[in-house]
């Protein structure tokens, strides 16, 4: 049975199903279509499906032209009807894995998708989970639900895990060129998953199990989380010591070995680094282990928005002003520069903290013209246009995201006070007295 599936993939006859058409799923759709395979996309958001079927993209780095060509050429279709999951030969699941308010893993999206697949699962299908999660999820959560169909893994259907490695905004690597780690439930499942991804992506990296692939992604993001926490803590320490942490990092980075530069910020954003380490620490408790290192890093990173607000309050106080009643402009809503992705963005928490403390808050982001309802946030705000007069009308400008389109010299020139969390104003020579690093 697995030979038939691999043969269909290699002859470009297999239909690829992608569940979740967001920042992970839609780039995957593009690569499989480019490789000559047909793709059927699934999403619970009817507005997204409607837009895609009309050839419109809602993700900045996937142009509408690309979507229109895929749809017009018959390579891609999208649906909200999950009963059609019986049609694809390979089902790639790219759904959210957020945290609960208690910072425990929220598996509801994965479980709901697994139940939808199980309801129509047929012999010969490959199911791959891509959502970042703790080691053991594929076998402990996905597999029991899928086998409620009466089919047996490794005999009737195949199961694998392959962590997504998307990094919106990168130009040096893409979905196609980032090596794809794949772990299968068994050898047949691994062979099928490798064949599937090799049909569209440049490099596939097989590992021994689903758990190894799950742990791989958790390691990558925990590594980044811990190192970012380190420089965030040093930023707070060096600030008290009157030392510029950015200068220190630049100097340390001249060492050609033994040092990798990480940079501080107003908090962690994106769908991985703020979440994934907590998945691992939660899983570790099942093995009676306390991952103190990871949990401390998480505490430091989570505390950064409040640190930024305290620096802003101190800066206003030096000017005989209080935060309450002050007009604050937040520059950048996205979690990183030059993207439209606001998932887990520290800007959202900064805005909510400012409002909570009585400030009058606006934001500007050329990539995010308006906010939208999210699981934890619903700000109902629109981006304000930038002008010299407009900048001068705020008591402080808070740089949360260092988009390259911003003219920082003009911002400093016209703003009354600039609180810079990203070292974006490092090249500005005049008006330095207005700038406060945070």
Automatic annotation (TrEMBL):
Keywords associated with the record: NAD, Oxidoreductase
GO biological process, alphabetically ordered: polysaccharide biosynthetic process
Domain UDP-glucose/GDP-mannose dehydrogenase C-terminal: residue ranges: 329-427
GO molecular function terms noted in the UniProt entry: NAD binding; oxidoreductase activity, acting on the CH-CH group of donors, NAD or NADP as acceptor; oxidoreductase activity, acting on the CH-OH group of donors, NAD or NADP as acceptor
Keyword Cytoplasm: no
UniProt keyword NAD, yes or no: yes
NCBIfam families: NDP-sugDHase (TIGR03026)
Protein name: UDP-glucose/GDP-mannose dehydrogenase C-terminal domain-containing protein
Classification lineage: unclassified sequences, metagenomes, ecological metagenomes
């Amino acid at each position: 049975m697995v030979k038939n599936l691999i043969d269909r993939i290699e002859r470009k006859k297999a239909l690829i199903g992608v569940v979740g058409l967001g920042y992970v799923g839609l780039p995957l759709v593009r690569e499989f279509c480019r490789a000559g395979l047909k793709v059927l996309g699934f999403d619970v958001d009817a507005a997204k499906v409607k837009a895609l079927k009309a050839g419109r993209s809602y993700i900045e780095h996937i142009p509408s032209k690309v979507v229109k060509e895929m749809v017009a050429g018959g390579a891609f279709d999208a649906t909200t009807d999950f009963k059609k999951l019986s049609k694809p030969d390979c089902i790639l699941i790219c759904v959210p894995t957020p945290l609960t308010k208690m910072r425990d893993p929220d598996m509801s999206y994965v479980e709901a998708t697994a139940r939808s697949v199980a309801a129509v699962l047929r012999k010969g299908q490959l199911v791959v989970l891509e959502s970042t999660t703790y080691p053991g999820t594929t076998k402990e959560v996905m597999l029991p639900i899928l086998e409620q169909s009466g089919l047996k893994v490794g005999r009737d259907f195949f199961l694998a895990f392959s962590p997504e490695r998307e990094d919106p905004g990168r130009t040096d690597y893409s979905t196609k060129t980032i090596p794809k780690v794949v772990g299968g439930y068994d050898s047949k499942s691994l062979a099928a998953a490798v064949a599937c991804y090799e049909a569209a992506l440049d490099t596939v990296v097989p590992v021994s199990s689903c758990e190894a692939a799950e742990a791989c992604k958790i390691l990558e993001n925990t590594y980044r989380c811990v190192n970012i926490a380190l420089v965030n803590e040093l930023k707070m320490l060096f600030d008290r010591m009157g030392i510029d942490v950015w200068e220190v990092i630049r100097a340390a980075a001249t060492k050609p070995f033994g040092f990798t530069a990480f940079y501080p910020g107003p908090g962690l954003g994106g769908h991985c680094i703020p979440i994934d380490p907590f998945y691992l620490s939660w899983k570790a408790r099942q093995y009676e282990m306390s991952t103190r290192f990871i949990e401390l890093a998480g505490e430091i990173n989570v505390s950064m928005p409040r640190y930024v607000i305290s620096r802003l309050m101190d800066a206003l106080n030096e000017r005989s002003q209080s935060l309450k009643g002050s007009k604050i402009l937040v520059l950048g809503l996205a979690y990183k520069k030059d993207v439209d992705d606001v998932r887990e963005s520290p800007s959202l928490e900064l805005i909510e903290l400012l409002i909570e403390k009585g400030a009058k808050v606006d934001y500007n982001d050329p990539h995010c013209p308006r906010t939208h309802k999210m699981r934890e946030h619903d700000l109902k705000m629109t981006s304000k246009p930038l002008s010299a007069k407009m900048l001068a009308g705020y008591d402080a400008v808070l740089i949360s995201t260092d988009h390259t389109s911003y003219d920082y010299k003009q911002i400093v020139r016209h703003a009354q006070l600039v609180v810079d969390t990203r070292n974006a104003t490092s090249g500005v020579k005049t008006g330095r007295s207005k700038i406060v690093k945070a």
